[in-house]
Amino acid sequence: MLANFLIGLREGLEASLIVGILVAYLVKSGNRQRLPLMWAGVAVAIVISLGFGALLSFTSANMSFRAQEAFGGFLSILAVCFVTWMVFWMKSAARGLKGELQGKLDKAIAIGGYGIVFAAFIAVVREGLETALFIWAAVNATGQTVGPLIGAALGIAVAVLLGYLIYRGAVKLNMAQFFKITGVLLIIVAAGVLAYGFHDLQEAGVLPGLNSALFDVSSIVPPSSWYGTLLKGVFNFSPRTTWLEAIVWVGYLVPVMALYLRPAKTITPAPRVPAATTTV
């Protein structure tokens, strides 16, 4: 539940900030009358994102066990790829995001009403589809339904509230620090989702090694216990972990975290060479 709350909070706040930027720019540029068109684009993006999540659940529910495991495994790997790209993209593009969105909105205003709907739709639907896919993968990894979905819904609700308060100026957040911390936590969650995705592929018989366990602490950490459920929900920890799962977890977490926490390179300007003086 906590991991899904984090996913909903992070992705929801990104979408809320994007919407806030679009609203503020339309108001300040004298295009307040076009706000309903922007909200129409946002609404369509939300409906499509919810529909995508429902489609994933419906498709998986009508498959055989082996097909379900293979489907879940491949989609978990895809979700981790998207989330990893998103985390690094936000780290590099956060500073120029406002200007980029405003530039796109200027072009949309010039096109007309449908342009604004499309600009708002594109800005939000990417976050929505990523959120639906990653939440579905995380729910699939925990093997639960109600708790993770409640966590995700609470995270999105808090994100929307924070986005509104930030827009109104009632709350000041150090956004760079917020996205850095949540990025670190998301990478940890993604490592667990990725490892469980490979476990699904082992269950489906696509990959070998299902019976080659690195460790089995089920007697110490029963999966049904409260602490076993907590570890599963937050870190996707499996009391019985195969060699392949452990290798994938470490092989993803260590290099990705190192790259993410690596300080950005600063370009130092070249020293100015004084102009040559001529004497007559």
Question: How is this structure best described in words?
Answer:
Helix 7 (175-203) packs antiparallel against helix 9. The chain has helices spanning 2-28, 35-61, 65-93, 97-111, 113-142, 146-168, 175-203, 226-235, 243-261, and strands at 213-216, 240-242. The protein has a two-stranded antiparallel sheet with strand order 1-2. It is built from nine helices and two strands; from the N terminus they run αααααααβαβα. It has one domain (2-261). The N and C termini lie far apart (81 Å). By secondary structure, the protein is mostly helical.
What integer is the average pLDDT?
81
Q: Spatial order of the strands in the main sheet?
A: 1-2
Tell me the number of structural domains: 1
Radius of gyration over alpha carbons?
23 Å
Task: Provide the structure class.
Answer: mainly alpha
| N-to-C SSE string, H for helix and E for strand | HHHHHHHEHEH
Describe the global form.
elongated
Helix content: over 70%
Strand content is: under 5%
DSSP strand tally: 2
User: How is the main sheet built?
Assistant: 2 strands, antiparallel
The number of helical runs is: 9
Give the CA-CA distance, first to last residue: 81 Å
Uncertain stretches of 5 or more adjacent residues? none
Write a concise keyword list for the protein shown above.
two-stranded antiparallel sheet; elongated; 280 residues; 9 helices; single chain; 2% strand; mainly alpha
